[in-house]
Amino acid sequence: MPKRPLGKHLTEADRAIITQLLKEGRSLRYIAGQIGCAPSTITREIKNHAERRTPRTCGCIHFMDCEKRNACHPAYNCKKLCRSCNAAKARCQDFVQAYCDEAIANHTGVCNFCSKRSRCNYIRYIYNPDKAQEEALESLKNNRKGRNISEEHIDRIDRIVSPLIKHPGKKIHCLQKDSVC
After folding, report:
1. 131 neighbors 15 (Cβ within 8 angstroms)
2. Which phi and psi angles does 170 have, rounded to 5°?
């Protein structure tokens, strides 16, 4: 595929291709080659727009063997097993987050390719092209709006900068109180 011109944003069609190739389990380098951009562009796209999904289960590597109780609220004498309590995750001293071996081996950082992703008990990241397109367009709109600056602030900057332009050689004072740049 021909090389994409520098500075050209990913399109909705590009994002659909990324999703399809992620489902096929293709590498980031292969995806980048198909779209005609750098692998780092694909990496940033996935990193910036992949949605984190947390399982309802404990997510600890000790999940199957753990018989601990009362880690969530020691003062309340909780009878519930910690592995079935979301509050215990933050307080259990033996909690170690479990990660999917397939997702780690895939190197894409997302679980779009996995057939078990709907019933997975691990933290997973899913790349959704529609959501990515929406976020990208919103980011472009926000970047084009400009600064949200008040008239008083503009006048203050003008009072500081204008005399310095007319009389070069004076020290420039920062906009913060009592500081010198």
Report:
1. no
2. -80, 155
CA distance to 20, 32, 57, 93, per residue, from 29 (Å): 14, 5, 34, 40
- Residues sharing a CB contact under 8 Å with residue 113, sequence separation 6 or more, in sequence order: 22, 23, 24, 25, 106
Task: Please give the average pLDDT of every successive group of 10 residues along the chain, which has 181 residues.
Answer: 71 92 89 91 89 74 74 69 69 75 71 73 83 88 76 87 74 54 50
DSSP 17: H
pTM: 0.61
DSSP H or E run through 52: strand 50-53
Over the Cα atoms of the chain, what is R_g? 26
Question: What is the phi/psi pair of residue 144, to 5°?
Answer: -90, -10
